[in-house]
Amino acid sequence: QTRQHTQVAIIGAGPSGSVAGALLKRAGIDVTVLERSRFPRFSIGESLLPQSMEMLEEAGLLEAIEQAGFQYKNGAAFRCADRYCEFDFREKSSAGPGTTFQVQRANFDQLLADAAAQQGVPVHFEHTVNAIEFNNEQAELEISTPESAYTLTADFILDASGYGRVLPRLLDLEQPSPLPHRSALFTHIEDRITDPTYDRNKILISVHPTMPDIWYWLIPFSNGRCSLGVVGLDSQLELDQSQHHDPADSTVLQSWVAQEPKLKALLEQAQYDHPVQTIRGYSCGVSQLAGDRFALLGNAGEFLDPVFSSGVTIALKSASLAAHALIRRYQGETVDWATAYTVPLMQGVNTFRTYVEAWYDGRFQDVIFYPDPEPTIKAHISSILAGYAWDKSNPYVVESERRLNTLATLCRETV
Ligand code: FAD
């Protein structure tokens, strides 16, 4: 067994790992990224939010994404039976980018990892972190590759392992999410949409006509294909864990699509030519986001819900906050991880949480589908949907629960 040392070890080369790696390397910190799989590999999480463009730019990774030919995205569209509304993110109240992309994550994640590597970040594929020990001076990571095993010592670990949740498992930090267990059934389709009113520049979220807590995503890509998924409680989707799910069989997903007449009409000609996958009970939390020698990034920490496509944005925000805290640490400052990382990260996560909970109990759906919104209020809501959940100049961020309740009541009374 060989032993090696790095200042910061990053577990996982998803978006949060690559962005953290690039930011640290740019600050002259010696960093090593360890990735279990071989890229490209499939990942879910394809509709980005404009706020995430700022973190990519800061890490010097935006150009690679802008040049890749991904589907341009300028907003979100929502449909529930005959109610339809659009949010154009360029009309948001927050400063910052108003457009972004919808991406096949296999390509996107590979582009980010390659661009980080071009900046000098060592990214090691098929290096799996199996165990970690902490002592007073450093952390020791036990790593295996297809050929061998070795030990890497590090001053600090950023866990960007997503659903691998390496440190939450090893340090027993896992906490159940307060959100109920929901699942998703999804695939990629050749969409063959001919409806001239369909806007490929927006994600389309459709609500089930009779069960408003069940919803569908339709995320167009730039190559005539779409990501399509349905989300509901485990019990509603009846994804029986004991039964074998045949990925080649799209009939269950198609039967859900058939229950939403507008979506069914839109996808009349669609070709279901890709495996159908499921993710169950995806929401998760942790008891602690950082310690003396570690911080949890992105999905390795907290994951809420896919309804507002906030996952990658939160992952990149966490990478940026953690990298800046580490840069200060290597400049000789004493960093308090609660104030430098956990509190600011959770402020945005909790803003999203307020709107996610209100989506499922109906309050936020009433706001979204309100036919005649006041433009300033719509701009504030657009900002949140565009990912600017950390913008404290937005009253719907700082006082999210109170403002949302007042607005929802008003919308209900005046419809
Ligand atoms: P990941 O992208 O998951 O990367 C983690 C990496 O760590 C992986 O490459 C993995 O191989 C590696 N790894 C794991 N274990 C180890 C180990 N032991 N050693 C070494 N490497 C390891 N987000 C959006 O922004 N938009 C969406 O539209 C969206 N839709 C979603 C739909 C569903 C149904 C779900 C469940 C989530 C969705 N998300 C969406 C969330 C999104 O998938 C995640 O938030 C995002 O991928 C998190 O990025 P990450 O960098 O934290 O981790």
From TrEMBL:
Pfam families: FAD_binding_3. Transmembrane segments: none annotated. InterPro entries: FAD-bd, FAD/NAD-bd_sf, Flavin-dep_Halogenase_NPB. Residues 6-334 form the FAD-binding domain. One of its GO terms (molecular function) is FAD binding. This is FAD-dependent oxidoreductase. It comes from Terasakiispira papahanaumokuakeensis.
